[in-house]
Structure formats: structure tokens, C-alpha cells
Amino acid sequence: MSPTPLVILAVVTPAVAASLIWVFRDWANTRDAISLTFGVALLSMVLTLYPQVADGLRLSSNFGEMLPGLEIAFVVEPLGMLFALVSSSLWIVTTVYSIGYMRYQKDAHQGRFFMFFALSISAAIGIAFAGNLFTLFIAYEALTLATYPLVAHYGTDAARRGARVYLGLLLSTSIGCLLVAIIATWSLAGTLEFIPGGILAGKVEPWAASLLLVLYVFGIGKAAVMPFHRWLPSAMVAPAPVSALLHAVAVVKAGVFTLLKVMVYVFGIDFLADIGAREWLMYVAGATVLLASLVALREDNLKARLAYSTISQLSYIVLGALLASSLGIIGGTMHIATHAFGKITLFFCAGAIYAASGEIDISRMRGIGRRMPFTMAAFFMASLSIIGLPPFGGLWSKWYLALGTLDTDQYVLLAVLLISTLLNIAYLIPIPLRAFFCPPEDVPEGGMREAPALSVIALSVTALGCFVLFLFPGPLYRLAAMLVAP
Amino acid sequence: MISAHLPALQIIVPLISAPLCAILPSGRIAWLFATMVSWLALAMAAMLLIEVTANGPIDYEMGGWAAPWGIALYVDRLGALVLVIVTGIGALVSPAFYHSISRELRPDRQPLFYTAYLLALTGMLGIAITGDAFNLYVFLEIASLASYTLVALGSDRRALTAAFQYLILGTIGATFILIGIGLLYMMTGTLNMADLASRLPALWDSRPVRAAFAFIIVGAGLKFALFPLHWWLPNAYTYAPSVVSAFLAGTATKIGVLILLRFVYGVFGVTFSFAVMPLGEILTVLALITILFGSLAAIFQDDLKRMLAYSSVAQVGYITLGIAIGNLNGLLAGLVHLFNHAAMKGALFLALAAIFYRIGAVDMASIRGLGRRMPYTMAAFVLAGASLVGLPLTVGFISKWYLILAAVETGQWTVVAVVVFSSLLALIYILKVIEAAYFQPSPDGVVERGEAPLTILAPLGLLAFACLYFGIDTGLTVGVAKIAALGLLGGYL
């Protein structure tokens, strides 16, 4: 492990941005320039770290000991690198989108908004680079807290209620199960380091391992495994950029990322394969995939439909992690990135539609493609990526996940994946189809009326990202494969 | 030279200053004087703590009279830790007295307030430092009587009934302790704690000694508000002047816990308390009920002071729970939480003092929109509130970490569940305040900034900062608590 201050710098950079944003909160242009500048700075730091990590180096920074034997430490390993790459690159795109969106809406609390946004990214990078479970937990909780003001942003009764459910569920699962699991791990294994091959093998009784696995899977509430998924739809009261970056990328991916990390570095794939509770937890994840898709099918509110789609897609990754096979881990890891690009595009589009036309219900979006061709085209591309069709990135992760189920002879779960793909088609594709081919109902024809330009640019970039991930999945695959390489 | 007499000076300085305050002409001068004395006491306590962590416990004989006849003072690491907590809270809260007291009290009563405060301080310091069981009772009465007075000074007329209730129950508690000490004296012929500890093992089977144990535990339990002996606390903290609540919440119950620790570990010994007598089981059950009851009751309060008072009941339950679990990490959790809870409750009650100073009320309806009007006060409240929930990077997390660790080590999963559940209850009542203060408009449409004066704001900021700082750099708090816990467990590990 080679120490470099750059790692800790990357974690701190967005937090510095947050404090500067607060100082310049009333100077809109300076404030937004700070967001963008620090976004680029963060991405370039992560990119500087990338080649070394891809060469198999583990870069680390140490902050110091907080409790005897428990350090605040950061280590960059392949999985964290991937999550950091996704979060930091999408932060820039989302900032561009938000500037357009929030200014267009003439929001009164933009300073607070961008400040907590930057803080959330700081926490997300902290999660990505956390060098041990203790640091990861702290960053995980920090992310929950930093996103709470964003969810409650509008301050209406509905927003406060949604934010309450959000905070309540995430904190109760994390304190109630995750923290207990971490303390038990510390007590049993005597360490919380992330070590390839795990730290628990040979140190716990089978029943205790099962219990720990259950506590981890449900305790990491951000992974939204049913029945602890309610916070995600509740969080949809947030402004669109928040839903896009945080509840399609940073927060939810932090959940599945933590889960993958725990499976790979705390349990270890070999030990995980022998744990009794794994089998039925896989079926819980499988059930989440199907049930959430079915709920999505019935939702008429676009953001709610996307939220349930996210819940379903997250459980793909949970499933991949629990398969305890190399292919499953690779598929799950790649799905973090491919789903991120697809889903953020869809949320961007939902926000753009709302900004341009005020519509939130799918049934009222007939013919909207004629007025918003770019947005709806991006929506269509991202939908195809989520479904897992070529030529979009989603294909690759689904491919490896399916291979993972075959590899472990889990034919039921393979069926779950296939049925879910059909459900994806059923709840996503009608939206762009109706938008383009059905005539609008009551809205007068009036040429193009797109969302703010910055927002349209952002959502086009991420939609293109889905396509680029199809052409060049190499770096993604290499990082994912390094996780399971001996 | 003078440093050799620090243990004596630690009590004598505030004791002599107390009557001096009463003859000072104005509240302002008395305030300056009392604040100075508080900081001096803190300095002495800090020197004592440094001394005992480096060189071990200090035995001090008053006037050079040897122990069984003279008055013995005894400063160990636990005592020094409590000295620092009590004087630290005193020193930090005392600047805030000025504005808060001059608003809530008649001018002619203000010097008397400072007298009562210094007497309370003296009594608490005496309890922490004495090596003699009877002197412990005397200091307890000094501290208690002064506290009743402080509570009775509250501007609300209900403060009188609250103080009366506190007086009756407090006196019963003190009397129980006195009865216990009397029984011990009857059986052993000594009042010196070290002598008691050496003579008691031979008398483990005698009924009076067991009765004495029961009396003292119940008496101490009343002082630190263990369920079902907690009824005095919510009223006392609610109707006392705001700054008094801040002072008492950080110190009074801690002293009760110290009495428990002194007798359980110092006088009776671990083996008698936990193996011969079923103290562990009884305290665990009562602590769990205290925690659940306190947290649940706090949720339903509309008055923020009452809410925090019930929360105090629950938090002291955590301390008791740590002691009841009885292994190193449990005791460590209890001791660390002595310090941590003092910091966060001090901050929270001071925030209420600041709000009361500006708004004149501290209920849920009147704090709406305060996030904009009093940004610093509310930020401190949120920070200390997060500690109460036990979120990472705050002191509350450290306490909870060790408490859950101790429970996991001993396989007590019910305890884990209760601690976790109670944290979430704390989240509910803190979130209610945050929602009201930040996401609701103020009731009368006032939006301009109006912070409390610096004398309240500065101590509040320091205490809130302590909640954060000692949640990240735990070397000092956990370090001292660990040494103290090891000292208490002594040869039993």
C-alpha cells in the first residue's frame, strides 16, 4: 500500500467546495462556478489515481486513530475507484443540469442546495475510498445526513413528511442493524480492515455468520432491499437534480457498493458461499426485483415509477453480490456504473419534462416528444440501456449477472432476471412511444418547447454515456475483474 | 508547595467564596466573582487530573491528622474525571448566568443565586474528592440543599412545587444513604472508605451489611433518577431557571452515579456487588426500563426543557447500563458517557437558555423558524442533538459504540436492541425540533436575525464544539475513562 495525500484530498475537496459555496451563497455566478471548478478538480484527482489503481496498486491516506485500534483511513481499491469515477464524473454533469434547473425554477434556497449537494459528494467519495468498515460507516451516515436537507428542500408538508421517512428508515436500519453488525464483526474478528478474502472466515460460528449476513443486507438500507425500500419513493419529493444524482447514483449506489464491499472484503466470496442465510436472502433480492418492477408498472407518477425501477435494479446488484461467484460480482460491479448512467438520464428527463411543461403524470405525457424531442430521445436511449439492449452499456452488466446465475445453477434467479427484463420493457418503453406517436390531448401545437438548455445538454451527455459504455466497457470490466482475481 | 494542598483547595475555594458572594453588593460583581471561582476550580481540577493520571491516586489528610481520626481526602482517576466534568460544566455555564439570571431573577436575589450555585459546586466537588463515607453524606446534603434552592428560583410559580418535590425525594435519598452508612459504621466501626473496604469482606454474610448495601443503592438511585425513582427530575429541570438546568443536567445526576461507583467498586467491591448480591441483573433491568421510559416520554413533550429532562433520564440510564454490564467496555462506556452526556446536555440546555432569553418560551410552536433567526444557537442545538442520537463523529457515537460492544461481548442482545431502539426515539424528538426550526416559518412572521448575547453564545459554542471534537479525537476522554475503569476493576481483571 502506498500512501498519498491525494486520496484524502479527493474526499475533502467537495467539502471545501461546500464551505466556499456557503460563503458565496448570495453571488449566484461565483457560487455555481465554484461547484463546477471543484467538480472538475475532483474528477481530475480521481483520474490521476486511476492508472495506478488499474495497475493493482492500493493507494492510501491515513487520517488518524479515532478509537483505540480503529482508524479513519482511506484506501483506494478497484471497487471504490469505480464508484468514485461514476460519482465524480456525474457530479459535474448534474451540476450543469442543476444550474439550469434551479435557476429556471427561481429557487430561493440555492445556496443551501448546492452546499449540501457538495457535502453529499464528499460523503460519497468518503464511502468509495473508505479504508475500513469503521470509516465507511461514518461516511455512510454522513451521506444520509447531508442529503436530508436536500430531500426536505421545498419545505412543504409533503417534503417534510417524505424527508422524515427518508431519514427515519435510513438511520434506523443503519443504527439498528448495520452498526450492530459492525460492532459484532469488530468483537469477533478483532479488525475492521478490508482484506481480500475476508476477515470473518474461521472466526465465527455458522449461525453467527448467517445472522451477520442478514444484519448487513438489511442494515445497508441504502441498497433498498424490500421491506426497507420505502425511503426511496419518499425521497422523490426532492428537486429533480437530487433525485437524479443522489437517488439514482450516489446514495443508492453507496448502498449496493457497501454491500459488495462487505461481501468481497469482510465475508470473502468463498466464506460467503457457505453461509446458510445466503440462499434465502438471494430470493428476497429476487422478490424485490420482481415486486418493485410490478409496482413500477402501476405507478402513473413518472418519478415514482423510476424510483421503483431503481429499487428493482438495485436488487440486481444485491443478487450479484450474494451469488458468491466471480461472474456475479463482476456483473454487480459493472451494473453500478451502467445503471447509474441510464437512471440518471431518466431522472434528468423527468425533471426536464416537469420544468418545461409542469407534467408529472405519465398519462398526461402523450405527444410530448414533439415538443421535447431531445429529452424524449435521451429517455428512449436510457430506457434501452436499463432494459439491457444493445447498443447500450446496460447489456454488459446484465450479461455477466445472467452468466453468474448460470454459473451457480440458480435457474430460478435467471428466470427472475429475464422476467424482470420483460417488465422493464413494459414499464419504460410505452413512455417514449406515447410521447412520440400519440397525438397530444389538449395542449395546443406550438413547435419545440424544451427544458433549459443546460439541462438538455446534461441529459444528452449522460444518454451518450450509456452508448459509450457499450463501446468501451473495458476499463469497467478490468476494475470489476480485479476484485475477484486471486 | 501549594500544589500539594490542591485537594483541600479544590473544596475550600468555592466553599469560602459562597458566603462572600452573598455580601457582594450587586449581581454583576457576584457574577464576575463566581465565574472567576468556577474557572479557578476548573484549573485546579485539571491539575489534579494530570497529577493522578501521571502518579496515581492522592491521599490527603486534612490538617495533617491521620486517616481514621482526621478527615481524609482521596483523589483517584475516577474522582479527578468527575471533578473535571463538574468544574468544566460550571466554568462553561457560569458566563451564561449573567444575562439569563438578570432576566429571570429579581436584582436583590441575584447575589444569593451565586451563593447557592457555589455551594452546590462545593458539595459536588466534595463528594468526588472525599475518602470518608460520612463526609460524603455531608457534602451530598450541601449539594442537594443548594440545588433545591437553585430550582426554587425559577420564575414560574410551579418552580416552587418542583423544588418541594425535589426536596422531599432528595431528602429521602440522602436519608437512605445515611442509614446505609450508619449500618456500615455499626458493623465495622469505621467511616473511612479504604478501611470499610478492607473490613467488609469478612462481613459479607451479615444482614445489616446487606441492608446497608440496599439502602445505599436505592439512595444513590434516587439521586441519579433511576426508574422508578426519577419523578423529581423532569419537573425540577423544567421549572428551574434555564441556566440552572444546564448546570444541573451536566452535574447533579453524574454525582449520583459517582456515589454508586464509589460504594459499589470502592467500598463493597465487585465480588460482593455483582456475585454475592444480584446488582448487575437488577441494575440492567432498571436501566433498560429507564432508557425506554425516558426516551418515550421525551417524544410526547411539547415543552423543550421537559423533553430534554426526560432525555436526561434516559441518558443517565445509559451510564447505569454500562456500569450494570460490568465488564471493562461497559464501565468504559459508562464513564465516557459521564463526560459526553455532560457536554451535550450542557449544550442543549444552554441553547434553550439562549432561546428563552430571546423568545421568552421554549415550546414547539414558538421555536418555528428559529433556524434563520438564531442560526448559531440552532446549529449548536442540532450538533448536540445529533450527539444525543449517537450519530458518528459526535461524542454520543463513542459512548454508544462501547455500550453496544460491551453488550455484544456479553451476548445480551436485548440490551443491544433497547440501546438501538432508544437512539431512534432520540432521533424522533430531535428531528421534531429540527423540522420546526428549519422547515417551518416563524409564527409571527419575524425573520430578522436576533442572536443571544455572547456570554451565552460563547459557552454554548464551546460545549457544542466539545460534542464534535471529542467525538473525533477520543484520545483524552476514552483514555482517561479507560484508566479510571481499569482502576475501578482493579485486581478483578
What tags apply to this protein structure?
heterodimer, A: 486 residues, mainly alpha, 3-stranded mixed beta sheet, 20 helices, 74% helix, globular, B: 493 residues, 2 domains, two-stranded antiparallel ribbon, 2 strands
What is the percent of helical residues of chain A? Answer: over 70%
The order of strands across the largest sheet of chain A is: 1-2-3
How large, in whole angstroms, is the Cα Rg of chain B?
Answer: 21 Å
> In oligomeric terms, what are we looking at?
heterodimer
Low-confidence stretches of chain A: none
Q: Helical region count of chain A?
A: 20
Strand percentage of chain B, roughly?
Answer: under 5%
Structural class of chain B: mainly alpha
Give me the secondary-structure category of chain A.
mainly alpha
Largest inter-chain interface? A-B, 28 and 31 residues
Strand elements of chain B, count: 2
Count the domains of chain B: 2
Biggest beta sheet attributes of chain A: 3 strands, mixed
Strand content of chain A: under 5%
Net shape of chain B: globular
Low-pLDDT stretches of chain B are none
| Order of adjacent strands in the largest pleated sheet of chain B | 1-2
List the secondary-structure elements of chain B in sequence, H or E: HHEEHHHHHHHHHHHHHHHHHH
Counted beta strands of chain A: 3
Q: What do you see in this structure?
A:
- The complex is a heterodimer of chains A (486) and B (493).
- With 486 residues, chain A is mainly α.
- Helices cover 74% and strands 4% of the residues of chain A.
- Chain A has a three-stranded mixed sheet with strand order 1-2-3.
- With 493 residues, chain B is an all-alpha fold.
- Chain B has a two-stranded antiparallel sheet.
- Chain B starts with 5 loop residues before the first helix and ends with a helix.
- The chains are: A mainly alpha (486), B mainly alpha (493).
- Chain A binds chain B through residues 64-68, 137-138, 141-142, 145, 149, 152, 155, 159-160, 164, 167-168, 171-172, 175-176, 179-180, 183-184, 186-187, and chain B through 386, 389-393, 398, 400-401, 404-405, 408-409, 416, 420-421, 423-424, 427-428, 431, 435, 438-440, 472-475, 478, 482.
